[in-house]
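re: ur question from yesterday

yeah so i grabbed the chain u mentioned. its 39 aa long if i counted rite. heres the sequnce exactly as i have it in my notes:
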Amino acid sequence: MTIGELIGLASTVLALPGSIVAVIELWQMFKPGHGRHRK
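ran it thru and got these C-alpha cells back, copy pasting raw so excuse formatting
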C-alpha cells in the first residue's frame, strides 16, 4: 500500500463520521413534528 492510498483511506475514514452527522442533522431538520428547528 502506498502513502497516497494510506492518506486517501485515512481521509475517507475521517470524513465518514462528519457526513453521517450531517445526514442526521438534515434528516432531523426536515422531519416534521420537531418544532425545535423551525424558525
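noticed a couple things. The mean pLDDT is 84. also The two ends are 50 Å apart (CA to CA).
anyway ttyl
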